[in-house]
Amino acid sequence: MHYVKINYMERITKKVLGYNVDILTFDDAITKVIESIKNSEGMQIVTINPEMIELANRDKEFSDVLNNAKLIIPDGSGIKLALKLKGIKQEQIPGVDFSKKLIEICSKENYKIALIGAKEEVIVKTVENLKKEFPNLNISYSRNGYFTPEEENQIVTEIENSGAKLILSALGAPKQEIFNRKCKEQMPQSVFIGVGGSFDVWAGTVERAPLLFRKFGCEWIYRTLKQPKRIKRIYKTLPMFLIKVIIEAIKEK
Predict the structure, then answer these.
(1) Taking the CB of the first residue and of the last residue of the chain, which one, N or C, has fewer CB atoms within 10 A?
(2) What gap in Å lies between CA 203 and CA 39, rounded to an integer?
(3) Looking at the 3D structure of the chain, how many domains does it have?
(4) Distances in Å between the alpha carbon of 62 and those of 14, 46, 229, 245?
(5) Is the pLDDT of residue 236 over 90?
(6) pLDDT tens for each residue of 36-49
(7) Is residue 75 domain-resident?
(8) Beta-sheet pairing, 139-143 with 113-117
(9) DSSP the chain
(10) How many CB atoms lie within 10 A of CB 58?
Protein backbone atom coordinates (compact mmCIF):
# COMPACT_ATOMS: atom_id res chain seq x y z
CA MET A 1 0.00 0.00 0.00
CA HIS A 2 1.24 3.49 -0.86
CA TYR A 3 0.93 6.38 1.57
CA VAL A 4 1.36 10.05 0.73
CA LYS A 5 4.78 11.14 1.93
CA ILE A 6 4.51 13.98 4.42
CA ASN A 7 6.84 15.35 7.03
CA TYR A 8 5.21 13.42 9.83
CA MET A 9 7.52 15.04 12.39
CA GLU A 10 6.10 18.48 11.61
CA ARG A 11 3.29 19.36 13.96
CA ILE A 12 0.78 22.20 13.74
CA THR A 13 -1.36 22.74 16.82
CA LYS A 14 -3.78 25.26 18.29
CA LYS A 15 -4.57 25.72 21.96
CA VAL A 16 -8.08 25.08 23.23
CA LEU A 17 -8.37 26.20 26.85
CA GLY A 18 -4.67 25.60 27.35
CA TYR A 19 -4.38 22.22 25.61
CA ASN A 20 -2.89 21.51 22.20
CA VAL A 21 -5.12 20.18 19.44
CA ASP A 22 -3.50 19.05 16.20
CA ILE A 23 -4.66 20.82 13.06
CA LEU A 24 -4.70 18.26 10.25
CA THR A 25 -6.96 16.13 8.07
CA PHE A 26 -8.14 12.61 8.82
CA ASP A 27 -5.84 11.22 6.12
CA ASP A 28 -2.78 13.13 7.34
CA ALA A 29 -3.43 11.95 10.90
CA ILE A 30 -3.56 8.35 9.67
CA THR A 31 -0.34 8.85 7.71
CA LYS A 32 1.44 10.26 10.76
CA VAL A 33 0.51 7.21 12.81
CA ILE A 34 1.46 4.67 10.13
CA GLU A 35 4.79 6.43 9.54
CA SER A 36 5.40 6.27 13.28
CA ILE A 37 4.72 2.52 13.31
CA LYS A 38 6.89 1.91 10.25
CA ASN A 39 9.78 3.81 11.82
CA SER A 40 9.29 2.21 15.28
CA GLU A 41 9.17 5.65 16.85
CA GLY A 42 5.93 5.21 18.78
CA MET A 43 3.47 7.78 20.02
CA GLN A 44 0.53 8.31 22.33
CA ILE A 45 -2.63 9.56 20.66
CA VAL A 46 -5.49 11.28 22.47
CA THR A 47 -8.92 11.74 20.90
CA ILE A 48 -9.93 14.86 22.77
CA ASN A 49 -13.38 16.22 23.61
CA PRO A 50 -14.71 18.94 25.98
CA GLU A 51 -15.27 16.50 28.85
CA MET A 52 -11.63 15.45 28.75
CA ILE A 53 -10.47 19.06 29.00
CA GLU A 54 -12.66 19.60 32.04
CA LEU A 55 -11.32 16.37 33.57
CA ALA A 56 -7.75 17.47 32.93
CA ASN A 57 -8.36 20.75 34.72
CA ARG A 58 -9.18 18.74 37.87
CA ASP A 59 -6.61 15.97 37.45
CA LYS A 60 -2.93 16.91 37.21
CA GLU A 61 -1.83 13.45 36.10
CA PHE A 62 -4.31 13.50 33.23
CA SER A 63 -3.33 17.07 32.39
CA ASP A 64 0.32 15.95 32.11
CA VAL A 65 -0.73 13.18 29.72
CA LEU A 66 -2.53 15.65 27.45
CA ASN A 67 0.42 18.03 27.53
CA ASN A 68 2.83 15.28 26.47
CA ALA A 69 0.75 13.33 23.94
CA LYS A 70 2.34 13.30 20.49
CA LEU A 71 -0.95 13.55 18.62
CA ILE A 72 -4.24 15.03 19.88
CA ILE A 73 -7.05 14.71 17.39
CA PRO A 74 -10.35 16.65 17.63
CA ASP A 75 -12.90 13.94 18.36
CA GLY A 76 -15.66 15.99 20.00
CA SER A 77 -17.84 18.39 17.99
CA GLY A 78 -17.26 20.90 20.79
CA ILE A 79 -13.56 20.95 19.96
CA LYS A 80 -14.35 21.56 16.30
CA LEU A 81 -16.60 24.47 17.33
CA ALA A 82 -13.92 25.90 19.63
CA LEU A 83 -11.44 25.92 16.74
CA LYS A 84 -14.00 27.47 14.41
CA LEU A 85 -14.47 30.34 16.86
CA LYS A 86 -10.73 30.94 16.51
CA GLY A 87 -11.07 31.08 12.72
CA ILE A 88 -9.75 27.55 12.10
CA LYS A 89 -11.69 25.22 9.84
CA GLN A 90 -10.85 21.80 11.24
CA GLU A 91 -12.69 18.61 10.40
CA GLN A 92 -13.94 16.49 13.27
CA ILE A 93 -12.07 13.18 13.44
CA PRO A 94 -14.24 10.62 15.25
CA GLY A 95 -12.05 8.33 17.31
CA VAL A 96 -14.08 5.24 16.41
CA ASP A 97 -13.54 5.83 12.67
CA PHE A 98 -9.91 6.83 13.12
CA SER A 99 -9.11 3.68 15.11
CA LYS A 100 -10.99 1.43 12.70
CA LYS A 101 -8.96 2.79 9.78
CA LEU A 102 -5.73 2.10 11.67
CA ILE A 103 -6.90 -1.47 12.31
CA GLU A 104 -7.64 -1.92 8.61
CA ILE A 105 -4.15 -0.76 7.65
CA CYS A 106 -2.49 -2.90 10.33
CA SER A 107 -4.32 -5.88 8.85
CA LYS A 108 -2.97 -5.13 5.38
CA GLU A 109 0.55 -4.39 6.59
CA ASN A 110 0.67 -7.31 9.07
CA TYR A 111 1.26 -5.14 12.13
CA LYS A 112 0.25 -6.83 15.37
CA ILE A 113 -2.36 -5.09 17.49
CA ALA A 114 -3.51 -5.39 21.10
CA LEU A 115 -6.98 -4.67 22.49
CA ILE A 116 -7.70 -4.06 26.15
CA GLY A 117 -10.91 -2.88 27.78
CA ALA A 118 -14.67 -3.27 28.10
CA LYS A 119 -16.54 -6.25 29.57
CA GLU A 120 -15.41 -9.81 28.84
CA GLU A 121 -18.31 -10.56 26.51
CA VAL A 122 -17.72 -7.28 24.66
CA ILE A 123 -14.00 -7.81 24.08
CA VAL A 124 -14.63 -11.40 22.93
CA LYS A 125 -17.24 -10.23 20.42
CA THR A 126 -15.04 -7.32 19.32
CA VAL A 127 -12.17 -9.70 18.48
CA GLU A 128 -14.58 -12.04 16.67
CA ASN A 129 -16.15 -9.27 14.57
CA LEU A 130 -12.84 -7.61 13.68
CA LYS A 131 -11.38 -10.92 12.52
CA LYS A 132 -14.46 -11.51 10.37
CA GLU A 133 -14.08 -8.07 8.80
CA PHE A 134 -10.28 -8.28 8.47
CA PRO A 135 -9.32 -11.98 8.12
CA ASN A 136 -5.59 -11.21 8.08
CA LEU A 137 -5.70 -9.11 11.24
CA ASN A 138 -3.14 -10.25 13.82
CA ILE A 139 -4.59 -9.56 17.28
CA SER A 140 -1.65 -10.64 19.41
CA TYR A 141 -3.24 -9.69 22.74
CA SER A 142 -6.72 -9.03 24.09
CA ARG A 143 -8.36 -8.92 27.49
CA ASN A 144 -11.19 -7.17 29.31
CA GLY A 145 -10.74 -3.90 31.17
CA TYR A 146 -11.47 -5.21 34.64
CA PHE A 147 -8.23 -5.52 36.56
CA THR A 148 -6.76 -4.30 39.82
CA PRO A 149 -3.85 -1.86 40.18
CA GLU A 150 -1.80 -4.81 41.41
CA GLU A 151 -2.37 -6.63 38.10
CA GLU A 152 -1.42 -3.65 35.95
CA ASN A 153 2.34 -4.27 35.74
CA GLN A 154 1.77 -7.87 34.65
CA ILE A 155 -0.69 -6.75 31.97
CA VAL A 156 1.76 -4.17 30.62
CA THR A 157 4.43 -6.88 30.43
CA GLU A 158 2.02 -9.22 28.63
CA ILE A 159 1.24 -6.52 26.06
CA GLU A 160 4.95 -5.87 25.56
CA ASN A 161 5.64 -9.59 25.09
CA SER A 162 2.86 -9.78 22.50
CA GLY A 163 4.89 -7.61 20.11
CA ALA A 164 1.90 -5.37 19.35
CA LYS A 165 2.67 -2.25 17.33
CA LEU A 166 -0.75 -0.66 17.89
CA ILE A 167 -2.45 -0.83 21.29
CA LEU A 168 -6.08 0.25 21.65
CA SER A 169 -7.43 0.66 25.17
CA ALA A 170 -11.12 1.08 25.95
CA LEU A 171 -10.98 1.92 29.64
CA GLY A 172 -12.66 5.33 29.57
CA ALA A 173 -10.99 8.68 30.17
CA PRO A 174 -8.79 9.42 32.00
CA LYS A 175 -7.94 5.82 32.95
CA GLN A 176 -7.14 4.71 29.39
CA GLU A 177 -4.82 7.65 28.71
CA ILE A 178 -2.97 7.19 32.01
CA PHE A 179 -2.67 3.46 31.36
CA ASN A 180 -1.39 4.12 27.84
CA ARG A 181 1.30 6.44 29.13
CA LYS A 182 2.48 3.75 31.56
CA CYS A 183 2.59 1.22 28.73
CA LYS A 184 4.46 3.60 26.47
CA GLU A 185 7.19 4.07 29.08
CA GLN A 186 7.86 0.34 28.77
CA MET A 187 7.09 0.12 25.03
CA PRO A 188 8.43 3.36 23.49
CA GLN A 189 8.31 2.01 19.93
CA SER A 190 4.57 1.24 19.91
CA VAL A 191 1.52 3.42 19.23
CA PHE A 192 -1.18 3.83 21.88
CA ILE A 193 -4.67 5.24 21.55
CA GLY A 194 -7.62 5.40 23.94
CA VAL A 195 -10.81 4.43 22.13
CA GLY A 196 -13.51 4.93 24.77
CA GLY A 197 -16.66 3.04 23.83
CA SER A 198 -15.45 1.88 20.41
CA PHE A 199 -15.33 -1.79 21.42
CA ASP A 200 -19.06 -1.66 22.22
CA VAL A 201 -19.69 -0.34 18.71
CA TRP A 202 -17.50 -2.98 17.04
CA ALA A 203 -19.03 -5.72 19.18
CA GLY A 204 -22.49 -4.59 18.08
CA THR A 205 -23.74 -3.94 21.61
CA VAL A 206 -24.07 -0.19 20.97
CA GLU A 207 -25.59 1.23 17.81
CA ARG A 208 -23.81 4.10 16.08
CA ALA A 209 -25.71 7.18 15.10
CA PRO A 210 -27.18 7.27 11.57
CA LEU A 211 -24.92 8.78 8.91
CA LEU A 212 -26.86 12.07 8.85
CA PHE A 213 -26.07 12.69 12.54
CA ARG A 214 -22.40 11.82 11.97
CA LYS A 215 -22.12 14.00 8.88
CA PHE A 216 -23.14 17.11 10.82
CA GLY A 217 -21.11 16.28 13.92
CA CYS A 218 -24.21 15.57 15.99
CA GLU A 219 -23.54 11.98 16.95
CA TRP A 220 -23.50 13.01 20.61
CA ILE A 221 -27.14 14.11 20.31
CA TYR A 222 -28.16 10.67 19.04
CA ARG A 223 -26.21 8.92 21.80
CA THR A 224 -27.88 11.15 24.39
CA LEU A 225 -31.32 10.33 23.01
CA LYS A 226 -30.51 6.63 23.18
CA GLN A 227 -28.84 6.92 26.60
CA PRO A 228 -30.67 9.65 28.58
CA LYS A 229 -28.39 9.13 31.60
CA ARG A 230 -25.67 10.91 29.58
CA ILE A 231 -27.64 14.19 29.76
CA LYS A 232 -26.56 15.10 33.27
CA ARG A 233 -22.88 14.45 32.48
CA ILE A 234 -22.89 16.32 29.17
CA TYR A 235 -24.84 19.36 30.26
CA LYS A 236 -22.72 19.66 33.37
CA THR A 237 -19.71 20.20 31.10
CA LEU A 238 -20.79 21.60 27.73
CA PRO A 239 -22.34 25.01 28.63
CA MET A 240 -19.34 26.09 30.73
CA PHE A 241 -16.95 24.77 28.07
CA LEU A 242 -18.67 26.87 25.39
CA ILE A 243 -18.60 29.99 27.56
CA LYS A 244 -14.90 29.52 28.21
CA VAL A 245 -13.97 28.97 24.54
CA ILE A 246 -16.02 32.01 23.45
CA ILE A 247 -14.19 34.16 25.98
CA GLU A 248 -10.85 32.68 24.88
CA ALA A 249 -11.63 33.37 21.20
CA ILE A 250 -12.62 36.98 21.93
CA LYS A 251 -9.41 37.57 23.89
CA GLU A 252 -7.30 36.15 21.07
CA LYS A 253 -8.98 38.38 18.50
Answers:
(1) N
(2) 31
(3) 1
(4) 19, 11, 25, 20
(5) no
(6) 999 999 999 999 99
(7) yes
(8) parallel
(9) -------TT---EEEETTEEEE---HHHHHHHHHHHHHTT--EEEEEE-HHHHHHHHH-HHHHHHHHH-SEEEE-SHHHHHHHHHTT-------HHHHHHHHHHHHHHHT--EEEEES-HHHHHHHHHHHHHH-TT--EEEEE-S---HHHHHHHHHHHHHHT-SEEEEES-TTHHHHHHHHHHHH-TTSEEEE-TTHHHHHHTSSPPPPHHHHHTT-HHHHHHHH-TTHHHHHHHHHHHHHHHHHHHHHHH-
(10) 9
Q: Which of 88-102, 177-191, 222-236 has the lowest mean pLDDT?
A: 222-236
Report residue 72 CA to chain centroid gap.
8
Residue 181 lies in a domain: yes
Range of the domain at 17: 13-203
Give a yes or no: residue 160 inside a domain. Answer: yes
Q: Is residue 168 part of a domain?
A: yes
Strand partners, 115: 142, 168
